[in-house]
Amino acid sequence: MRAMILAAGRGARMRPLTDHTPKPLLKVGGKALIEWHLLRLAQAEITNIVINHAWLGEQIEAYLGDGSRFGVHIQYSAEPTALETAAGIKKALPLLGEHPFLVISADVWTDWDCRVAPYLAQRLHQQQALAHLLLVPNPSHHREGDFDLAHGYIQSKTSTSSYTYSGMGVFSPRFFDQVNAEVPTPLREPLHQAIQQQKVLGSLYQGQWQDVGTPERLQQIEQSLAH
């Protein structure tokens, strides 16, 4: 199984930390955010990894290299300007192959076990679905949530019992059939269509997870690791 780590964002809310350092290379617990993901993927024996980048992307390539020191093999999908999630993944599809792959946002912190990913991919095949999203309980900075979850399927948000998309999921390449790789496109556009067709599975993860969106949240993780 292959994985894609999304690392093309500007990280504007993290400024000034991201003025000269790409957000995925910000350090927590002595390691870059993206480094934690690589190590977890290596432990799960998911070793073929694609990383997209835009803002200060040359620093990401210089820091990670071919991935061998982390026990993985990295290929890069460079974007002259950030394409947003859906188009960025579509551009990288030639590197990801024909089978479902794991997608992880570089700027989340989590202890989720990547060894679950092949089982989620198997469920896509069994249910003839296009994606499986990992949801988390709504954090304090996003109490309204993103989606409802019912009987293992993602639904558009209609109630107060909603959850937040974790930035992690397993996707079939077919999910991106209608996405243009040259037009910046957020993930929510193809997601909306696939949800309407009941083609998006989901599950709730209640372990450690944090969207590292601000310097304060980065500091919170640093403090939790110190204890």
UniProtKB/TrEMBL annotation:
Membrane-spanning intervals of the chain: none
Keywords: Nucleotidyltransferase, Transferase
Cell division keyword on record: no
Domain Nucleotidyl transferase, first and last residues per copy: 3-225
Pfam families in the cross-refs: NTP_transferase
Domain of life where this protein originates: Bacteria
Protein name stated in the entry: Nucleotidyltransferase family protein
